[in-house]
Structure formats: structure tokens, C-alpha cells
Amino acid sequence: MDGTIVDTEPYWIAAEHALVEAHGGTWSHEQAMQLVGQSLTFSAGLLQQAGVDLGIRQIIDTLTAEVVASVRQQVPWRPGARELLEDLHQAGVRCALVTMSEGPLAREVVASLPRPYFEVVVTGDTVAQGKPHPEAYLKAVELLRETDPDLSLEHCVALEDSTPGVAAAVASGVATVAIPHIVPLPEDERYILWDSLAGRSRADLEDVILARFLPDGTAGPEHARHQAATLEGAGAPGTAHD
């Protein structure tokens, strides 16, 4: 969610700065970059090390409240995010939101959407292990499978912007697209790199899945469409976003 669908990272960074400074410490850009995509528990631990004299739960609640307040004033959508969600929704592609933010912030973002794009929402407070562990993505797929037992990891694509998020998606076994935002990501054969979601559509995500089945790229468009239809027949493709 943060950094892929909405650009809330500046809100988080501002909240971190304010919290550390309120406790007499200093917070650098480099320190803030270490928290991008991480679980809130991990982030709270680093803030404690920076001098914040509060418990983990207090830190998480304080940061989340600040970011929720900022989102209520303005939802900072990432380019192409709403358009892609609308395209997927119109095509009947089931979507899950997988984020390390907790329920209150995720619900705020979801409530601002014009339609119920996300059938499943997995947040950081509903998993035992945060990203880069794959638990959140595996949980999202299992929840989607409850109404479609034929759905498998091979039918799903994850869209991620951060190093921990990409690592979690790759480890879960789903095809992964990295759209780096705040922190650059290197090229890697384990995932596909996109510059932006702007101009992207369902067809681009189908190509990501087909590339796993046809790594030599020899199949033509007609065969690709047939493969896509076969995949949908076996279980509607799913897309998981952070």
C-alpha cells in the first residue's frame, strides 16, 4: 500500500522526525530509509534506539495516528494506481491488499476508493511475522482460495515498491513486479522492474504470469491469450498490492 498505491512515505517520515525530536533525538534521512517497507514493530525498535522513550505499541499507535490524520486531509495516490485497480475490477480480477501498515490506516485508504477493489485486506497487525517474511502474502492467497480452491500461487502477481516487500513477495512464490519509489531497487531475475504503474493494465500483469510459463518468449499473442484464458478458468488470477 504505502509507496505502491499511495505515497504515504513522506507522511511516515514526517511523523518519525516529529516523534524522535519530541524525545530530544535526531532523525536522519538515512535512518528513515531503513524503515521503508519494514514491519511497524521493527521500525518502532529502531526509533527506540534513536531515543524515543516509549514502548513499541505506543510508538506504533503514535505514528499511525499521525499518518491517518494526514491521509484524511489528502490521499496521495501514486501515478496509475487507481486506473489499474479500476481496470482489474472491471475485468473481474480479484485483488488483495497486503500491507505492513495496521488496520486503521489501511481502512482509511480503502474507504477513499470509489469501489470495493480489494476483496481481501491483510495488514501488519494480522500476521505474526512482517515483511520480508512471506507470511502476509501467503495469508492473502489463502484467503482468496477460500472462495476459489483452484486458485494457486501461480495465478497471482504481487506489486511492491520496497526491498522488504519485494523479498516477501518473491519468497511467497508469486510472480513479483517491483515499482521502486523512495528506495531504488536493483535489477534481479527473481522479479520484474517497472518504472511506474502509469499506463499499466491487466494485460501487462497477464504477461508477467505468462513469462513464468514461457520463459523463452517464443509464444505468439494468440497462444498467450489462450494461456491466459486457461489460467482464468482454473481460478481467477489474483493481484496483491502493498
TrEMBL record:
InterPro entries assigned to the protein according to its UniProt record, in alphabetical order: HAD-like_sf, HAD-SF_hydro_IA, HAD_2, HAD_sf, PGP-like_dom2
Pfam families according to UniProt: HAD_2
CDD domains: HAD_BPGM-like (cd07505)
Top-level taxon in the UniProt lineage: Bacteria
Hydrolase in keyword set: yes
Keyword field contains Hydrolase: yes
Gene Ontology MF terms: hydrolase activity
Keywords, comma-separated and alphabetical: Hydrolase
NCBIfam families hit by this protein: HAD-SF-IA-v3
This protein's name: HAD-superhydrolase, subIA, variant 3 family protein
Organism phylogeny: Bacteria, Bacillati, Actinomycetota, Actinomycetes, Micrococcales
